[in-house]
Amino acid sequence: MQSKLLRGTFILTLGTFISKLLGLFYVIPFARIVGETGTVLYQYSYVPYTIFISLATAGVPLAVAKFISKYNAMEEYAVGRRLFKSGLVVMLGTGMAAFLILYLSAPIVADIIIADHDKQTNPRDIVTVIRAVSFALIIIPFMSLIRGFFQGHQSMGPSAVSQVVEQVVRIAFLLAGAFIVLNVMEGEIVTAISIATFSAFVGGLGSLFVLFWYWYKRKPHLDELLLQDKGSVQVSLKDMYKEILIYSIPFILVGIANPLFQWIDTMTFNRAMTSIGLGSISERELAKLSFNTHKLVIIPVSLATAFSLTLVPSITQAFISKDQKGVNKQLNQTFQVLMFITLPAALGLSLLAEPAYTVFYGPNASGTDILQLYAPVAVLFALYSVTAAILQGIDEQKFTILSLLVGILVKLSLNIPFIKMFETDGAIYATALGYGVAIGINLVVIKIFSGYRFRLVLRRGLLIVIFNVFMILVAALVYYLATMVLSPKSEIHSIIIILLSAVAGAGIYVYLSFKTRLIYFLFGERVERIMKKVKLRG
């Protein structure tokens, strides 16, 4: 049973990773097809859609999976099936409601984004692309419930495969649609971007097809389980949804945090830049900040949080068992792993900002400067996600609401004055401070309610920082030498520069980690197993 669970978790993690990887690399051809104007327009629809989709689906698969898994363990299979049937109707209803709200509010959203008509983008175009993406909201919540149902039966394949298929179909439709409209039909940019945003709906249909196919194949087995149902537990629909809602809220808050911070930028950036006489470049700068560089900054966050969050169930178990030593051990490992992975990735991305930006979007001095400053904020993004998850692990998730609200208030208060003072950099400073305050609150709550002490993390954290200093020095030296013969303004040269610098930096980082045995403290048996295999092959 344990091996089946581990295999299922691996399959789901792999599916999620492939999906995220595809979601990152499609921007390389997309940015070249639609150009800066198209990227700006795409970004205007992307942020409000992300907020709505986070509200509609964040936590639903996990909440439903936990609920069904709980009652399946009690052999009360009919309870899970009843939730599934009623849930499909409810999610279809919430999806339709979310679609109507976003579709009808599109003109209001466009007026908020574009304060005057001197901008490059016409508010009517923004309305068009927002309405095109809103159709996806009809089916995505419905789809997320089906994924949760399969996960509750310890069947991770349907979720993993449907995620990958969704991304492949979406990206294929997005790229082909935008290319055909602009280069074959010689159509307008707003039409191309509308097709690109509508691809979310088409991708959803592809995913639904996969899930329905799995349902058809697995239904006989699922019906057999119903015949084994004990039928001794009666749970009302009201209690079902109450339990799911309570479990979903922390995931919704974590999922919506980043889009909300981006939405504050979308609402205030153009106005603030116009007020200091930079209205003519504000839209392009916003697209670089909120879409182009953000896509790259999220890479180290995904890597670190994916690994760190796997440790949260162990924290929950130790906390419920009142095992203080176990809680401290798990929290120590979680924070250290987070720092060990995120810090070098974020600093490395900052150092290699110019070639990284060139590879994805072409050479751009302004984009490079933004990425250089924005990359280290990835550490804060990852820390917020993990500390919020830990609060759930120690059953203090209510404080997640407080920390998020305070963080958003800080961002909202500082964004306009900071943009007026520091231009685009000001928005990054406001984001960093907002996240910093939210993390501070989470850490205080963790310390108070779990009795956790940060001494070991601070000590090891200092060691990780020292390793990062050596890593950056070596990588910077290789980068300097490489740029003497290669140009970071060339895409091919940039790939070579990134590979040379990254290999040199990572090499010294891993060497120091092995030399001090830090890597063994953090990853334990995993490293031992890998080293044994390497020695055997050697």
UniProtKB/TrEMBL annotation:
It is a multi-pass membrane protein. InterPro entries: PG_synth_SpoVB, Poly_Biosynth_Transport, Polysacc_synth. It is found in: Cell membrane. The chain crosses the membrane at residues 12-34, 46-68, 88-114, 126-146, 167-185, 191-216, 244-264, 296-315, 335-353, 373-394, 401-422, 428-449, 461-482, 494-512. Its main location: membrane. Keywords: Cell membrane, Membrane, Transmembrane, Transmembrane helix. CDD domains: MATE_SpoVB_like (cd13124). This is Oligosaccharide flippase family protein. It comes from Robertmurraya beringensis.
